[in-house]
Amino acid sequence: MHSRRAALTAVFPRQFWLLAAGFFVLLSGIDMCYPFETTYLNGRLHVSMTVIGLVLGLPLFASMPLYMLGGALVDRYGRKPVMAVGTSVIVVLYLTFATASAMWQIAIAVALEAAFGWALFLTGSNAMIADLVVFERRAEAYGIARAVQHVGMVVGPLAAAAVLTADPTYRSIFFAGAGICALFVAIVLTVFRETRPVVATREPFATTLRGYRQVLRDRRYLAFCAVTLLPLYGFGQIWSMLPVMLRDRHGVSPHTWALLITFYAATVAVLQYPVIRGVRGRNHLLVMALASLLMGVGFAGTVLAPFGGLTLLFVFVLGEGVVFLIPISSTVAAELAPPALRGRYMGVWTLVQMGGYALGPTFGGWAMDSLGSGGAALIMGAAGAFGGALFLAMAWRTRVPTLAGRRGARPALASQLAEETPPPEPPGG
């Protein structure tokens, strides 16, 4: 038992477990608020779904160039300060939800968070995990991180449901969520250590930005990112559009939604690590194809099936798609990133993830108002199926048995890519 614990500590060091515990704190605070933003805006402030979709989605599109800057900041100044700044902006967002008297105030806070909030945290934390864990075990590490986050996603909505019973104005849950996120900022500043690789000399910031030239020449990386937008389109609607779809189609109340999303998060939290461990050594592009298909089927079925037992079944299917999608896609993105450019590669990956989130509410809100909840759900199902087909095509073209690269396997995709991609430009180049 002691040797097994020592082996786990060697593979997943103490700093990683501290980061995982911090994820639980942060996601508990975020998910007291995030699943209820759209129902608050639509149900209490009477804002149309088209406007809500634009307010939540357009700032993400407008902020995309800044995600590239965030990756450069992570490489230049470190993972820790960028994570702290990003989380502090999330605190500001939820304080604004709690105190704002007009929609324009919330819109400004949403735009600020889209540019400098979760995106910065995501880039910094993804890079920190890649720094801490050897690449053969990164899929498991990202899986553990996601599992712990989903435990927070269970605690957050349950706590919010209890608070909503006492205060149906929603303001108390936004105050509480802001306070918990502020606690995570304190943990980052006082407990975490910096993991950015030490460099002998600091290159000029303009040279740091020019490192993106190599990323933008990486055709396979960009192709992988583009296809991943399809399942991410659905992922971006789970917390924003799905509760309103269920309310409109089946009369689901905020309290019932809180219980439903708790079931979703609990199943993901329980299954995340064993499922990802079970696909270690598999072709990750095939796993991504399965993830995309499950996302489409699960989302469409949750909305279209009669409410009841079938709803729980399709929510479970949707959760399984997320179990595969997030850690496997992040693993591929991290594996393809040279260590010296890891922050910039992960900055592009953050752009892709946030782009998927942006497509969700922006296009999903319009689809709901134009086609109804059923039509919007069918579009999501088609996007998931199409993404699955494209990942299958990518897996067939690369013909790589595993992206994790086990002993005796043919070269991993990262090795193939290294042969095709030119070396990084020298400083000043």
> What is the C-level CATH assignment?
Mainly Alpha
Low-confidence stretches are 400-429
Main beta sheet strand tally, sense and closure: none
Shape: globular
Task: Explain the overall architecture.
The protein is built from 19 helices and no strands. It is mainly alpha-helical. Helix 15 (254-278) packs across helix 17 and helix 16 packs across helix 18. The longest helix is centred in the C-terminal third of the chain and has 57 residues, at 342-398.
Summarize the structure.
This protein has 429 residues and is mainly alpha-helical. Helices cover 79% and strands 0% of the residues. It is built from 19 helices and no strands.
Blueprint of the fold:
Blueprint lengths: L1 H10 L2 H17 L6 H8 L4 H14 L1 H14 L1 H21 L3 H14 L1 H15 L5 H29 L4 H21 L13 H6 L1 H6 L1 H17 L6 H9 L3 H25 L5 H21 L4 H27 L6 H57 L14 H8 L9
Key traits:
429 residues; mainly alpha; Growth Hormone, Chain: A; 19 helices; disordered C terminus
